[in-house]
Design goal:
Number of strands: 8
Largest sheet: 8 strands, mixed
Number of helices: 4
Structural class: alpha+beta
Distance between the termini: 22 Å
Strand content: 35-45%
Length: 180
């Protein structure tokens, strides 16, 4: 699905959010690799699950065509600094929901970019008849969980010791939001 570009100004930073385009593939590949090394909150360590530009082009093309997928990018001064995806599945028993994921480069934390990506995704989901959005978050990411709760998500479950970073285990918190 495609949405129109929107402009925002927060704390003196002007940024835009729009649907991803195939021309974004190389920048997205580099950004994803960068962000995996910036925080413990990502599923991957830096370099794991690498997606090359050609694969990103395929993802963007499919997401643009599928009515139940949405791939958004955030741009500051012509540079992609964050992105989010909503991905549905083709199985009828799960056709009422999408899974949401978001990434923002650490340099741009604190400008409401993640929140704006989430708001636009929720608006898109509600407008397009999607009944449920799901997401997973590391149990120690209190700031993200607070945001998700404010946006109508609730905790649906916890996977204990679901991930291991070096020698320490972390829980994964599963959250969901039903269309209001």
């Amino acid at each position: 699905m495609i949405i129109d570009q929107q402009e925002f100004n927060v704390k003196g930073l002007t940024y835009s959010i729009r649907s991803a385009m195939e021309k974004d593939a190389e920048a997205l590949s580099s950004l994803r690799l960068q962000m995996d090394g910036e925080t413990e909150y990502m599923d991957r360590e830096q370099g794991e699950g690498f997606i090359d530009p050609a694969r990103f082009e395929q993802i963007i093309r499919l997401d643009s065509e599928k009515e139940r997928n949405l791939f958004l990018v955030t741009i500051v001064k012509e540079q992609i600094v964050g992105y989010s995806r909503c991905e549905g599945v083709d199985l009828k028993r799960f056709s009422h929901k999408v899974e949401f994921g978001v990434c923002v480069a650490k340099e741009f934390w604190g400008y409401g970019i993640g929140k704006k990506l989430l708001e636009l995704s929720i608006d898109w989901a509600d407008t397009n008849g999607i009944e449920k959005m799901t997401l997973n978050v590391v149990g120690t990411n209190d700031k993200a969980m607070e945001l998700y709760k404010r946006m109508g998500f609730e905790i649906e479950g916890t996977l204990k010791k679901d991930r291991r970073h070096a020698a320490r285990y972390y829980d994964t918190v599963m959250m969901g939001r039903f269309r209001g």
